[in-house]
Amino acid sequence: MPVPDVIPIAHEPDYRTATIGRYDGGQFFASLTYAFRDGYNATWGDWRDHKLAFAVLHRFDDDGHHTESEIQAGGTVREEQDGVTIAPGLEEWLADRLDALPGREFGSIAIRPFQTTHDGVLFGLVLERHGEGAGPDDWAELYPDVLGFHEPWDGLYDT
According to the 3-state scheme, what is the secondary structure of the chain? Predict the structure, then answer.
């Protein structure tokens, strides 16, 4: 089964897709996530200094086309470990953005592949080939959240 033009993403309360849904302007996908900048090769000793925390709000129209992304950086994993609290600041930023969406309702969405880069980090729903052999794309990966969507294209994901 080929990758559909519009990829469903199931709403799972209290899990990785808890903050997705619809609002008066279309659809949204919000998350708190971590990522390395493009090209970083992790080493045992310093990876915590390079893994960045982000709060993300992607917006889409009713047909699933990406319209805008708001992305807020919040420091590194090392800073969190050493007692600097990053997550509450990002959580508040994201909560404020979500509260500002008129008519917001959490629920399942269906969006089209898209890509944007912020601070050297790829954000988006990217089509890929995960099956064996050559052939068409058979997977859609949400970056940097690392959620993989595939057949039967029911909105459920692998991590």
Answer: CCCCCCEEECCCCCCCCCCEEEECCEEEEEEEEEECCCCCCCCCCCHHHCCEEEEEEEEECCCCCEEEEEEEEEEEHHHHHCCCCCHHHHHHHHHHHHHCCCCCEECCEEECCEEEEECCEEEEEEEECCCCCCCCCCEEEEECCCEEECCCCCCCEEC
| pLDDT tens digits for range 66-124 | 999 999 988 776 666 555 556 668 989 999 999 999 999 999 999 999 999 998 899 99
pTM over 0.85: yes
